[in-house]
Design a protein that fits this description.
Blueprint lengths: L1 H19 L1 H33 L31 H33 L5 H15 L3 H12 L9 E3 L3 E4 L2 E4 L1 E4 L3 H29 L5 H19 L4 E4 L2 E3 L2 E3 L2 E3 L1 H27 L3 H9 L4 H31 L11 H13 L2 H30 L5
Antiparallel strand pairs: 1-2, 2-3, 3-8, 4-5, 6-7
Length: 398
């Protein structure tokens, strides 16, 4: 008995020492938490399997290889038809989601920064216009903005009465029809020269930044960069014999043929998501600029810098360290809000694989898993990029 009691006391003392150790206790808690999570997931999956079997359903993704049987009106990257598979429909929906997210993030950032700076203007009218825009937009649900813009877009004239711009651009309630470039055999040379000019500009801007830090000399790098890109690309274009023709839209019957059609659903969703998210970005920009000490402005003024140069060279670079973290959240919100596209018939990921494919196949669990995991991966990629950019702009301690 004494030997058993001693061994039990020894085991209790070992457990007690491990639990009282901070590092060991944190590891134990994490292991137990992970075990509980996996146990809960296994119970949920077992319950799903049993219930699906009870109603005569199996859990599989074989439906992705079956014919979709429905049309997608907007597929700019893939040649999709109703005879394509559900997998191809999912890819089209994913590409449409990525397109609206990418375009929306760019436009929302531009509008947000402009209105954020306007909110700090000393001009009363500009300040109040920006204030009214921000407050009105932020306090109205995003779905109402989408429906409102879509209602405006579909009130445009029919194709036979289209708004004509120089006989090449046509604005109708079925979308904006623009000329489509068709490249010739030597067009790859032009593309290569364009990429090379971009690389030259990046190298030039890096050199100019180092020189400015060392000497204080500022070159008109923006106009130099534009000149390099334009002259280099145009020079290669003319030297290769202008390997480019244009497919101009033409009215045939009740609609236009040729060119590129920008669907009204895309335009409505793009504009609504952009200016709605921009209203939040504007406040982030304003708060980031206000967080910079006024002494920075006074010191720049004492050196003879104009207000625009002070904002460009001193205030914005410092404010970006404050702006970037909440800016990443707004990019994620814009991407996830794009799932409301189904309200106006824009065929994104939710409308394709999470909507029509779900109803046709009856694979609720499988389709929702695809949609959830896809949004998770997209969000993680955006977060990873913004975290990298945040670290790149952070102050380096010595």
């Amino acid at each position: 008995m004494d030997i058993v009691n001693k061994s039990q006391n020894k085991e209790r003392s070992v457990v007690s020492r491990l639990w009282n150790n901070k590092d060991a206790r944190s590891v134990i808690i994490q292991i137990l938490t992970i075990a509980l999570v996996f146990a809960a997931l296994s119970i949920i999956l077992h319950n799903i399997t049993v219930n699906l079997a009870a109603i005569g359903k199996d859990f599989s993704f074989d439906f992705l290889g079956h014919t979709a049987g429905y049309d997608i009106t907007f597929s700019p990257f893939l040649d999709y038809t109703s005879s394509s598979t559900h997998f191809e429909a999912a890819i089209v929906g994913l590409l449409n989601t990525l397109l609206i997210a990418f375009c929306g993030i760019i436009l929302a950032t531009i509008i947000g920064f402009i209105f954020g700076i306007m909110r700090l203007s000393n001009n009363w009218l500009i300040n109040k216009i920006a204030y009214c825009f921000v407050e009105f937009t932020r306090n109205v649900p995003i779905l109402l903005h989408i429906l409102f813009i879509h209602g405006i877009v579909i009130q445009l004239p029919v194709p036979r009465q289209a708004v004509n711009f120089i006989d090449s651009f046509f604005l109708t309630n079925r979308g904006l029809f623009i000329p489509k470039p068709e490249w010739g055999p030597n067009s790859w040379i032009v593309g290569l020269c364009f990429i090379i000019s971009i690389a030259i500009v990046i190298i030039l801007r890096t050199w100019n930044k180092k020189r400015q830090e060392q000497t204080g000399v500022i070159y008109p790098i923006f106009w130099i960069s534009i000149s390099i890109i334009v002259l280099f690309t145009l020079g290669s274009f003319f030297l290769t014999g202008m390997p480019l023709t244009w497919s101009v839209p033409e009215l045939r019957g009740f609609n236009f043929r040729g060119g590129v059609s920008v669907r009204p659903e895309f335009v409505a969703l793009w504009l609504a998501l952009s200016y709605y998210t921009a209203s939040f970005i504007a406040e982030i920009v304003r708060s980031g600029i206000l967080a910079i000490s006024k002494g920075q402005n006074e010191a720049a003024g004492a050196l003879g810098l104009t207000k625009s140069r002070t904002l460009q060279l001193i205030i914005i670079p410092q404010a970006m360290r404050i702006i970037i973290p909440p800016l990443a959240s707004q990019y994620l919100n814009l991407t996830k809000n794009s799932s409301l596209a189904i309200a106006i018939g824009y065929m994104d990921l939710v409308a394709t694989i999470g909507g029509i494919s779900l109803m046709q196949t009856g694979k609720e669990m499988e389709t929702m898993i695809i949609v959830l995991l896809t949004y998770l991966v997209i969000s993680l990629i955006i977060s990873a990029f913004m975290n990298w950019y945040n670290r790149a702009t952070a102050l380096v301690e010595r």
